[in-house]
Each structure stands twice: as structure tokens, then as C-alpha cells.
Design goal:
single chain; 258 residues; alpha/beta; TIM Barrel; eight-stranded parallel barrel; 12 helices; 8 strands; binds 2-phosphoglycolic acid
Length: 258
């Protein structure tokens, strides 16, 4: 039997929280999660908060840092961009790639997403590849085609070793920031489909170990049932991660049963 996958709960602050708000958040959050074990926890502040968070957390294992985006380029004349190695230098461990807001508002194509993913892995960052269908696509019965296209667009041709580093987040666009959550059954169906695609891309062993997170209006009330589904290995939380106490409750919901 394969080992159970350790859950990962990641809080994506999006464009919220100033650098001076980072320390008070961390102080409260650290207290709240002090007794919690057996869950990987990641905080994903804006770039400007990473430095402060990194200074406070150092290289601690209990709370890891993530970034919301990165450049596909390694260095040079790319005004306004942030490279993977700059993030590594701040002890950043994870990076979101292809969040639907980046795809929709900033025109990131599957090809851009793929290049960013490769850049992340090359610098030993673990990419959290975000995929998901819009409401129109779901209503047209196209959700699986969309997931397949986004997954293959980002991952086809990567080596097995590289694919082992990838975490996938299923985030139906219609559920992000809307208060509409996919039902546990809808989410499980999508996650199972994603895992089947990972089998095709990377083989059973890698696919069995891969963590697939659910994201889209996750709250302390919905988290436990979502994460109890067999193929849901954690959560990517936006709005509900901005309150350290509420976010700690979501982390608690991921603790494995004895
Ligand atoms: P939400 O955002 O929890 O606010 O819906 C999730 C995300 O976009 O990662």
C-alpha cells in the first residue's frame, strides 16, 4: 500500500496585507498552530511581504513560504519581474504557477505557465500548478477537456524527476472568491481525473505520490469534508487565509485522524 499523502494547506494572500502587517499575522498564526502536527503549511504573501516573513520564520519547517508568481527568465533586463533564484534566497519553497487570475487578467498562456514551471523547478522551488474550468466551460460539459489541456500544456515532456516536484491545485474559476464551493463529490471527481492524467504523464508511482489541492472559496466550514475525499490532498485558500485564526482552523481540518 502506498503511504498516505501528507496534506498541504496553503494560504494565498493575493494582493492583500502590507509588509508591516506580516509580523502581527505570524505572531497570531504561530500560536494558533503550535500544537498542530502532520500537515504541511504554506503561507503565500505578496512579494513585498516575503522578506519580512522570511526574516521571522527563517528556514523553519513548520511554516513554509510560497510566492504567488515568478518570472520565466533567470535574470536580466525584465523590469518589474522577480526570478526564481531571488525567491530561493528568501527561503521560499513553493510558488504558484498559472493561477487563474494570472491567466485571465494577465494573459498567461499554457506556454508561459510551462516556462515558469520549468524555471521554478530549475531553482528547486516546488511549483503549485493551478488549473480549473470557468462556469461556461463547466456548463458546456467541457471541464475535463480544459483540465487535460492545461495539465498537458504545462507538463508534457517534463522528466519524471521534474514531475515529482509538481503539486497541482484544482481551482474551478467559478468557485474562486465567489462563495461557491465545488461539492466534495464534484471536487473528488475532478481530482481523480487529474490523477489519471498524471498517470499518463508520469506513471503510477509519481501520480500516486502527487499532491492535488482543492481551491475555491474554502472555509473552515467546508475544509474538512473536502479534504476527507480520497484524492484531495490539501487546500489552496484565498480569502479565508487572511484571518490567522480562521486559517489555523482550516489547517486543523487537515490533521490526519489517529
Ligand atoms: P478563494 O481563492 O479561497 O478566495 O476563493 C482561492 C484562490 O484563488 O487560490
Amino acid at each position: 500500500m502506498a503511504l498516505p499523502r501528507k496534506k498541504l494547506v496553503a494560504g494565498n494572500w493575493k494582493m492583500n496585507t502590507t509588509p508591516s502587517e506580516v509580523a502581527p499575522y505570524l505572531e497570531t498564526f504561530r500560536k494558533e498552530i503550535e500544537e498542530i502536527d502532520g500537515v504541511d503549511i504554506a503561507l503565500i504573501p505578496p512579494f513585498t511581504g516575503l522578506s519580512k516573513a522570511s526574516e521571522i520564520l527563517g528556514g523553519t519547517q513548520k511554516i513554509r513560504l510560497g510566492a504567488q508568481n515568478l518570472s520565466a527568465e533567470a535574470k536580466g533586463a525584465f523590469t518589474g519581474e522577480i526570478s526564481a533564484s531571488m525567491l530561493r534566497d528568501l527561503f521560499v519553497r513553493y510558488v504558484l504557477v498559472g493561477h487563474s487570475e494570472r491567466r485571465r487578467l494577465y494573459g498567461e498562456t499554457d506556454e508561459v505557465v510551462r516556462r515558469k514551471l520549468v524555471a521554478a523547478i530549475a531553482s528547486e522551488l516546488r511549483p503549485i500548478l493551478c488549473i480549473g474550468e470557468t462556469l461556461e466551460e463547466r456548463q458546456a460539459g467541457q471541464e475535463k477537456v480544459v483540465l487535460e489541456t492545461q495539465l498537458h500544456g504545462a507538463l508534457a515532456g517534463l522528466s519524471k524527476e521534474d514531475l515529482e516536484e509538481v503539486i497541482v491545485a484544482y481551482e474551478p474559476v467559478w468557485a474562486i472568491g465567489t462563495g461557491l464551493t465545488a461539492t466534495p463529490a464534484q471536487a473528488q471527481e475532478a481530482h481523480l481525473f487529474i490523477r489519471e492524467q498524471l498517470v499518463k504523464l508520469a506513471g503510477t508511482e509519481v501520480a500516486d505520490k502527487a499532491r492535488i489541492l482543492y481551491g475555491g472559496s474554502v472555509t473552515a466550514d467546508t475544509a474538512a469534508e473536502l479534504m476527507s475525499q480520497p484524492d484531495i490532498d490539501g487546500a489552496l485558500v484565498g480569502g479565508a487565509s487572511l484571518d490567522p485564526r480562521g486559517f489555523a482552523k482550516i489547517v486543523l481540518a487537515a490533521v490526519p485522524e489517529e
